[in-house]
Amino acid sequence: MGRARGQDDRRPAPETRAQVREVWRDVLRRDPHQTLFHGDVLGVLRSVGPVLAEHPEYADVLGRLCEPERQIVFRVPWTDDAGRTRVNRGFRVQFNSALGPYKGGLRFAPSVDLDVIKFLGFEQIFKNALTGQDIGGGKGGADFDPKQASPTEVMRFCQSFAVELARRVGAAVDVPAGDMGVGPREIGWILGQYQRVVGLHEPGAFTGKPAVLGGSALRPEATGFGVVYFLQRILGEQGRDLDGARVVVSGSGNVALHAMDKVIAAGATVVGCSDSRGSVSEPDGVDVDALREVKGQGGSVADYAEKRSGAQTSDGSAFTLECEVALPCATQNEIRPDEARALVDNGCWAVVEGANGPVTPAAREILREAGVGFGPGKAANAGGVAVSALEMQQAAGRERWSAQDVDERLAAIMVDVHDRARDAGERYCGDPTDYENGANAAAFLRVAEAVHSLGVV
Ligand code: NDP
Fold first, then answer.
1. Which of 112, 164, 172, 157 shows the shortest CA–CA distance to 139?
2. Residue 404 near ligand 1, beta carbon < 6 Å
3. Which residue in 261, 346, 379, 445 has the most C-beta neighbors within 10 A?
């Protein structure tokens, strides 16, 4: 990446700073209530100053990056098992397609609104760029709660959702995947209805499919495994490794369970975990297979703990437990200043985001000041979308790659993601451990060059 830039080279010219301020004012003016989205935009605008000092021509790109190419909000009517008509709101935000088809997951949760989807979609542009693959950024979902619905209700909901989505997505246009509340089963149902509507066999229009429909080997594991590959690079730079380390993982869903598998395989002990109903501490180590079984039957971490003599439940955060590594893998805003201070006091080495936005800006500042390694989600959890892009490649070539092949490619991509963020952190911030600003800077450079090269479109 060349030599590190000095303090003076890192400040953009006054006219460039004025352009950035104008973009920020427009973001606030257009959607004054979208606070999650604002927080993410502000983080990126702050990070890219040193890049703009070197490339003032990219200031012109910022306004286009912050405004989605398209935002689709739609009604999703469906019939519940009692025969009543229900209505939810569906979303697909097609944020930026400069690098490739829009790519990003679908989230079904009652908390979903346009702010959540725009925040996740904006984040996705940079995450996808960091992987080095040719994919644009998008996100979607609905304010539908699959936990309150029977399997037949979830299927009817997915089918209704897919009818509207069908006019908007496609293998060369926009390729959704799963996210919270949407796994291979739901993607299979959405794909099934999609193919009826478009009249084509087009499995490449979605990723995260069941294996029998062309889902990639290792897609379910990819995000959690990738988080741990990223973590291992951070620890490597610190001269440490996972052997003997105590790890706390929040959540006990897809990302969390696979991250637990991987840290345990590397010699660590998972001493705490959580779900939406509470948290558990187990100093001798969580038995991930037992936890997976309880969760698979619809149970909670408290139900798991009841069966284990050394486990204790709590209503509070798992991140107040003593640990060397914290992996927030549940949802946004899980680590606030109180949890960050507890992690620092307990001598934590690294916090790596498996979820999107689980560490608040104020908490990140506390971790940074204390020198705790921090892996931002847009870099650390990019493994899921990276393997989704490998699934697109397999669909396009009508190929199936083995789990080992995909795992090797995933590990190599995560090393590249880490190194891009580290090198840009060094070059633009003078700090190779500043993965947050480094990831934003490296990703912005790639997307900005693509947007700039396309002209004003
Ligand atoms: P899942 O739905 O499989 O799991 C989410 C887990 O988080 C569940 O255990 C859930 O609890 C728990 N949870 C939800 N809300 C809370 C809360 N308020 N407090 C504590 N725990 C909570 O989702 P995923 O594992 O797929 O996704 C987790 C995160 O990772 C999300 O932020 C997602 O955007 C991000 N991500 C996911 C990717 C993927 O490939 N799946 C890719 C990149 C990022 P319960 O079990 O009780 O429902």
1. 112
2. no
3. 379
User: pLDDT tens digits, residue range 364-382?
Assistant: 999 999 999 999 999 999 9
Ligand 1 midpoint to CA 454 (Å)? 36
pLDDT of 3 > 60? The answer is: no
Please give the Cα distance from 421 to 415 (Å, whole number).
Answer: 10
Q: Of 103, 118, 127, 139, which is the active-site residue? A: 139
pLDDT digits (tens, 9 = 90+) for 191-208: 999 999 999 999 999 999
Question: H or E stretch including 14?
Answer: helix 14-30
Q: Is 412 helix (H, G, I), strand (E, B) or coil?
A: helix
Q: Per-residue confidence at 9, pLDDT binned at 50, 70, 90?
A: confident
Break the chain into its structural domains and give their ranges: 7-66+446-453, 70-203, 221-371
DSSP string covering 228-242, please?
A: HHHHHHHHHHTT--S
Same fold? 70-203, 221-371: yes
Asked if 127 is an active-site residue, the reply is: no
- pTM over cut 0.90: yes
CATH of the domain spanning 221-371: 3.40.50.720
